[in-house]
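Exam revision sheet. Question 4 asks you to relate a sequence to its structure. Input first:
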Amino acid sequence: MRFSYTQEIFYRNLQGKIAWIIPGSETAPHGSEANRRRKLKLVVLGANGRTGRLVVREALDIGDSVTAVVRSDAKRLALQHSRLRVVVGDPCDPTFLGKIIAGHDAVISTLGGRRPTKGATSVYWRSADAIVEAAWNAGIAKIAVTSSALLFPPGRLLDRVLAIIVPNVVQSAARMEQTFDNAKLDVVVARCGFLTDDKDPGYRAELGSLPFDGSSVPRLGVARFLLDAVRKPSSGLKIYGVSGPV
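Answer key, structure tokens:
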């Protein structure tokens, strides 16, 4: 089934692969030889989280080199790989990040509050401040981050209710996105709804809104989207709604 959008088109083909088609260019399915030939050096923030671990694993599977940032020794990844380096530090510290991201091609962040409190969700905008300062100093322009689909205009009563219940998530994620917009870097934002542990790697993504009936998305699909996003040409801030396949 093919899904057509205004500027970019994503579709899941019959073999279950994911392709991002930009009008006038070639298709580049995730995991294809075209993508595998382009090996990247990535910094992954939130690498010990459920989505972050999948980003690390998928990146290594397609040949990338990964520097995984965790906040403490207790949160070090169990995974070991010749192209994986794990560093301990504060992802909201621009000085620390500046030393880490130098020499890399892109930064992927899956950071988010584990609880909907003001303090926990502040990691959205605090990490954004640090990433922007570090990226400018290191000369890195390509960034991909996760955000909340609650920032889209509510299409359902449930969306309105959730936005009222978790205002800190909405406010902190919005502040993060504004920080990236002001920075004039090349940033892709994945606004996601409910994250699931479904093993399906498929995803749908639409520029500026959630795909139809797209209230949830597998974490693995989000990981695939983020890795695809840092491989595609883009400029400025691009906000995508990311959901699971139909």
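Marking note for examiners. The chain has eight helices and twelve strands.
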